[in-house]
Amino acid sequence: MTGQSPDPPGREPMITYWQAQDGYRSTIDARERFEELTIRDLSVRAFATLKARGTYDPAKHGDAGKYQPLTAADHLEILAAGEVLARHYRHPAHVDQAVKAGASWSQIAEAVGSDEAHIRQQYREWAAGQHQLHIYYEGKLGMDDTEYAAAIRRASEPPAGPEVEREAGQ
């Protein structure tokens, strides 16, 4: 990962979320590509700033010609790779683990920068999807009926009082 050269010949940019989701072998690949493109962009901008100020010195700053400006497709790939990473890191299973560990819905909402009702709704939708996986894959994946019912109960519990929230946060 040099961050210097444009895309290799023959490589198709992954400019949509779905292309990136299917195209990267792992989140590590997505992160490396995201970093490669953003570093290249930052370098191009830094060289342009140095040149505009009249302070660019090839001996001191390196060869600006090695860093090609990003294309529109490159910028779209940054967005697509970023979305792959964001969806990975904010996976609803993390909410499930937090609520099972005793975190309140308001604490979870604060942790993800959202409101409690929205988080609960997303959790219910995720649980329903997990339950459908269990049915479709004949019990090999997802939540069985009991787990699904428990998840829906958790999502429907009234907001915790301040004392309970304080205890869960400690």
Main attributes?
170 residues, mainly alpha, 2 domains, elongated
Folded structure, characterized:
By secondary structure, the protein is mainly alpha-helical. The protein folds into 2 domains: 17-89, no CATH class; 92-169, no CATH class. 67% of the residues lie in helices and 0% in strands. It contains 9 helices and no strands. It has helices at 17-23, 27-53, 58-61, 72-89, 92-100, 105-112, 116-136, 145-156, 162-169. The longest helix is centred in the first third of the chain and has 27 residues, at 27-53. The mean pLDDT is 89.
Topology:
Blueprint: H1 17-23, H2 27-53, H3 58-61, H4 72-89, H5 92-100, H6 105-112, H7 116-136, H8 145-156, H9 162-169
Compute the CA-based radius of gyration: 23 Å
Tell how many strands the DSSP assignment holds: 0
The main β sheet shows up as: none
Shape: elongated
Concise summary:
This protein is mainly alpha-helical. The chain has helices spanning 17-23, 27-53, 58-61, 72-89, 92-100, 105-112, 116-136, 145-156, 162-169.
